Fold:
Amino acid sequence: MTFSSNPLPAEMDGPRRLQEFPLESRRGLLLTILAGVLVAFVLQREWHLAAGTIAMAGAALGMLASIGKSVRIWNQVDWGTLGFFIGIFILVGALEHGGVIAHLAKFLAQHPLGQWMPLTILVGSALFSALLDNVPLVAAMIPLVQRLGQMHPEYGVELWAALALGAAIGGNATIIGASANVVAQGMAEERGYRLEFRRYLPFGLSVFAVTLVLGIIYVMLLG
Structure:
């Protein structure tokens, strides 16, 4: 299945085309800020900084470095994609703080399911990733897998492999299943091509089905 182009009307396309980079003279400073943010992410545990604090600090420094050009930069931000990520992280955070993740971990710990536990993690994370985006889902699932690994060390690396595979596989299913999909959708919109949820779904589900079967076979062989 292939996607045919569906350009926006000419009168709508012009304002949304990518503009020439307006901060050419400040590129070195912006790259330095970006490098500092990446270093901070790597060392966030040693520095006792939250990922959100690092990201917001980097964004603030970037805006300060863009003084005089900020209006043009502001107009080029993909607010729809940012809004999606804000909403999905709030949703997953609410599930975690509401105790849903803890209750799920308790249930799985009480019903270890034997050799079926890795497959349960694989299929469950794949299905939820297709609906919630795999990045925040994995962030919420890491404590659960850690707790299960401590309670049942016999599982070994299978649980982590199942989580990684399930999240990646689930990201193929829908346009909102993976962060890369959402970013690609925003970039396509900027260039005048509409990549909608229903348009992507048949292709995504077929890839999802094939890779899920392969993932199940792999986890079974790993165990």
Summary: The chain has twelve helices and no strands. The two ends are 35 Å apart (CA to CA). Residues 78-222 form one domain. Confidence is low (pLDDT under 50) at residues 1-20.
